[in-house]
Amino acid sequence: MAIRSWRVAQGLKAYMPPDASDFLLTLYGPVPYLWNALWLSLGSGSIAGSKLGGILAAFITLAAFALHAKRRFGPNWIAPAIALLGAGILMAGPHGIWTRADPITLMLVSLGLLATAELGRAGKPWWAAPLALGIAAGLAMNVKAHGFLFLAPLALGFAARRWPLSWPLAGLTAGLAWLAPFLLPAFPLDLYLGGLSQAVGVRGIEPGLLLQSAKRMLPLAAPLLLLPFAWKRIDWNERLYALGYGACLLVGLYPASVAGSAWYQLVPFLPLWADLCLRLCQKLPPARLFVLPTTLILLILIPALLAWPAQRRLHRYMAERAWMAEAALEIEGFASAHPEQSLEMGFGRDVAETYRTTFLRPILSFKGNPTSFDGWSDMEVAFIGHPATQARKERLADCKTGLWLIPAGEPPFTMPSVFSGQDFLFAYRQVFLENYELREKGRYFDLWACRAVDFASPKS
To answer: What are the residue boundaries of the structural domains of the chain, listed by start?
Structure first.
């Protein structure tokens, strides 16, 4: 995400044709790259700048939901609203704040909820809520193709007035909002649709992922448990809103359970989950005074308790990999020692621990170095069934990149695919070994150089 966003910030294309020498597959639309490019460009490219987009998206998500809670439930509900959604985001681990598409979709859903609920009030024009819903849904679809799923229940809850007109209006607006970013030259629509259709066509449901996603979905089913108790005290639109949420949540199990995906695909449902929890909690029968506060405390406490192990894992992950700061310094050292050469990062054999050192490759991209290989992208391309391309072989044979960093002590480009376990880089590895040799050894990386080019040759 950081590397592709940096390309956009520099005015380069985010999507390349499959036969290009620097082809990198992407299944995201333009919006996440535009969002992250904005913050990266402010800092001239940096690891810190690459993290800013996800963190800001999380804060905007909470701010929009707090404003929605104030408008819908009253000022006294702002604190419970922030606590509930905040606990949900923390329960999702890093997926609500990391440099990924998920925080951006989460932000769009929260903003869509705020706008659609506000404009769907009595006295507002009938077309206002569908218009807002369409814009939010279209932009969410522009992040991920199924992004409309996270906002679809709002059509039943707040945009159902004159539905024979309002729903087509929302659909048309969504289509236009989805299409608009593709008008920028960095995002050729045909290349995006081609890659997306091929990737979706080969993916099937993995039983293990389905089971994991179903378990992760259980806390998000809280509104459905509250619904029978509040049924008689809510209107039809709220009933349909809750039922639509439940139906979309079940449908969301599919993208969360296909090969290469996981439960985090359900994270963008969190604003609707929190809204329905508060809405239904407020409408519980007032048989006893303690029912409302007790239910509200439980609704907040359960995700907060689930957030504890998720955050512990995240902090443990960060602590155990504090050594990556030293690896980053080593990358800086290699780049400084050979400023005249283009320097790129490749892969070794390990697909688990040492592979994580390659997460530092944006450091090289920010310095103007190329990125022609990407572990995830190349695995996806091989999984789809694309053979090794002649253009990329020629790029290696012609030493377009003078120097390569490979995880220390590992043979280059030998890691297996996480999808199939196959040696998916074999064809490229053969060309690489014919044209490059090991020159220097570091603690975290080995430096491989083109046999035909010495260190004094200019950067290509």
So the answer is: 2-319, 324-450
